[in-house]
Amino acid sequence: MKIVVLGGGESGCGAAYLAKKKGMEVFLSDKGAIKDNYRQFLTGQDIEFEEGSHDEERILNADWIVKSPGIPKKAEMIRKIQEKGIRLSSEIEFASEFTDAKIIAITGSNGKTTTTSLIYYILKNDGLNVGLGGNIGYSFARQVADENHEYYVLEVSSFQLDDIQNFRPYISLLLNLSQDHLDQYNYNYEEYALAKFRIAENQENDNFFIYNKDDEMSKNILEKLEIKARMIPFSTREQLTEGGFINGDRIEIKLKDDFSMKIDELSLLGNHNVANSLAASIAGKILEINNESIRNSLMTFQAVEHRLELVTEIDGVKYINDSKATNVNATYYALESMKTPTVWIVGGVDKGNDYSEIEELVKRKVKAIVCLGIDNDKIINFFKDKKKFIYDTSSMEKAVEISKSLAKKGDTVLLSPCCASFDLFRSYEDRGHQFKEQVTKEIR
Hints:
The chain is built from 17 helices and 20 strands. The chain is an alpha/beta fold and 444 residues long. The protein folds into 3 domains: 2-85, Rossmann fold; 94-300, UDP-N-acetylmuramoyl-L-alanine:D-glutamate ligase (3-Layer(aba) Sandwich); 309-440, Protein-Tyrosine Phosphatase, Chain A. Strands 7-8-6-9-10-11 form a 6-stranded parallel beta sheet, with helices on one face. Strands 15-16-20-17-18-19 form a 6-stranded mixed beta sheet, with helices on both faces. The longest helix is centred in the middle third of the chain and has 16 residues, at 271-286. The radius of gyration is 22 Å and the shape is globular. The model has no long low-confidence stretch (mean pLDDT 94).
């Protein structure tokens, strides 16, 4: 079988490696430049590849094409592949064909990385043989090639779900929905939401679908779809007869047996993380992990880097790195959890943001806005009549310098950009690292 892999990053290299190990004829093509470490990996594994262009004839002669999630659905090459009727899969689809492990797959607009990491931690802490992959860590395909896990916990994006055919998790979780990546979904929120719901489309009645009962778009979609999996809800607003919910100062899970613990014992802060902890606990209960083990994991789990990460406190000012907040809804959760006057660093590549969602929170919580991006006009124009202090910057050094001058003892400086990072930074990780470097450079 001839396999062509499009994209030479972690996902693409993992898929090519798995295909090679399965005895397939493999060719990897990347229209851009491949990073040195991945180029060396491909060469070391004797995997044929090209970079800087696509050999169209060779690609369109494939039996099966594996597409990296970063390649837009509307790309010309993708259109030609679809016209020719060649099977086009994401790496998670491809890798899932070669493992019998139970897959726990997590998607949603916000909280995916935190909840994926937390579920992995719960399973690992209980001694289960588990791998972590998808949009986090090593690629799923590379782990399937080299390791023999009984469980995989996968963070899954809508872009990965766009290219599945048979992918069937044992447990799927849809944490929440908000308007994100609409530029890739014809600026249609429902089209984006339906892409997320594909996580459950191949599930059967011996599988589980964990969903957010408070989420309005999820409610609307569930009225139209038939989910075959056993559906288990969680809510932070109402008490449920089955699922996860808040009861006073406690979280509670009601399934075969009950689980309960105090909210203030959770290691993760903020209302959104209570929801994430509920979802993760339900997954733990489905997998029959005992209550004490789940409680221990929820108490000792450490927050994910770039996600409401406390960097340091200088002269009574807290500096928080929430660089992973690349949409308005993620920043909503960050601002909601702020307990002190906040200097807010925001900006980057806008993805169709509607800032009215956070207007009231900004009025109540934010003392000054520091814009960080090449083009900050949309943010400035929206907030100029609502906030007295708005600053326009195009470097992390300047953004942090101004934020430090504005923040007083007892305040918080929050990097929660609402936007993608690619105007000034290589990635949201790069943006977060530069923030931490600038914040701490005077105290090193």
